[in-house]
Amino acid sequence: MSELIKVEKRQVLQEKPDQASLTFGEVFTDYMLSFEYSQEKGWHDLKIIPYGPIELSPAAQSIHYGQSVFEGLKAYKHDGEVVLFRPEENFKRINQSLERLKMPQLDEELMLEGLKQLVDVERDWVPDGEGQSLYIRPIVFATQGVLGVHPSHNYKLLIILSPSGSYYGGDALKPTKIYVEDEYVRAVRGGVGFAKVAGNYAASLLAQANANGLGFDQVLWLDGVEQKYVEEVGSMNIFFVINGKVVTPKLNGSILPGITRKTVIELAKSLNYEVEERRISIDEVFELYHSGELEEVFGTGTAAVISPVGELQLKDEKIVINNNETGKVTQELYDHYTGIQSGKLDDPHGWRVEVPRY
Ligand code: COI
């Protein structure tokens, strides 16, 4: 599609935030992309409108029954140009999430075109400081106002944009402290763990708050059946460096198929690391630590990027990984990953997608 999407202009543009003080996801740009779905018309009325509050029926199915899915991706600025990172992967995944919640599919190409036009309108909002980016949040939610439990007949898609700094605040490579959750579970096979649905994050908040209260940044989830095998962290997939090998839990239906996870696996292989996707139990992780074979642990996510893990606590045992410092492999992957994203390094895999000037 090459037609220009209609832009409903706002009267007054906002003042841009001070780049030096950007946090994660607290400031939003002037415009957002909006798209409507009805049973009669299908997806229609794609437009760029002023960012702001929306009208929603108090009976909307999304707020009662949780029919709501989202995505997260980023835009970067380099040499005055704006690039997206693997955006087609996010639209592929949003369709998988939509399918799981019985919501209507999106045209992936049209969505990518709409996103490029939105980001072009907002290109002056893309920050260029170290570790900064324009965080992009597509969301699709049910809007029909009826209380019967059935798939909604109406939906809305919005894409909102937020100039952001690091997810955990401060230095992106500051090692995080992770609590291994042994009471609550996040997902089970056959459920919605693989999909990026809003409810997965709601279900994580109690354990996350408990862990925060004990001084931890995040929880590490174990499998929902035996609570034995490592799955993922609240907002990241998890990786271990074991005897020089990069190991991560194999996707099993209850783990989110992270796009950063996929990228890091491809990147590690291209840097000649052996990569293993397999089941790994939490007991094995602790045993490997005691035998000196667990060299590094890190998490991956669009928001969190590549984030070293400095401490893991299981019940009353705490292990300190690599002296609570960023490991060599984590650093190397971080440098390559962020270098390709920001344009400082070549992009041999073709992951960057430039935003044209329309
Ligand atoms: C992301 O990494 O983009 C996420 O969606 C995780 C979290 C911020 C919800």
TrEMBL record:
Keywords: Amino-acid biosynthesis, Aminotransferase, Branched-chain amino acid biosynthesis, Pyridoxal phosphate, Transferase
Pathway where it operates: Amino-acid biosynthesis; L-isoleucine biosynthesis; L-isoleucine from 2-oxobutanoate: step 4/4; Amino-acid biosynthesis; L-valine biosynthesis; L-valine from pyruvate: step 4/4; Amino-acid biosynthesis; L-leucine biosynthesis; L-leucine from 3-methyl-2-oxobutanoate: step 4/4
Spans traversing the lipid bilayer: none
Gene3D superfamilies per UniProt: 3.30.470.10, D-amino Acid Aminotransferase, subunit A, domain 2
UniProt-listed Enzyme Commission number(s): 2.6.1.42
Family matches, as InterPro entries: Aminotrans_IV (IPR001544), Aminotrans_IV_CS (IPR018300), Aminotransferase-like (IPR036038), B_amino_transII (IPR005786), BCAT-like_C (IPR043132), BCAT-like_N (IPR043131), BCAT_family (IPR033939)
Cofactors, names only: pyridoxal 5'-phosphate
CDD domains in UniProt: BCAT_beta_family
Broad enzyme group: transferase
Keyword Amino-acid biosynthesis: yes
Catalytic activity: L-isoleucine + 2-oxoglutarate = (S)-3-methyl-2-oxopentanoate + L-glutamate; L-leucine + 2-oxoglutarate = 4-methyl-2-oxopentanoate + L-glutamate; L-valine + 2-oxoglutarate = 3-methyl-2-oxobutanoate + L-glutamate
Molecular function per GO: branched-chain-amino-acid transaminase activity
Annotated family: Belongs to the class-IV pyridoxal-phosphate-dependent aminotransferase family.
Function: Acts on leucine, isoleucine and valine.
Protein name: Branched-chain-amino-acid aminotransferase
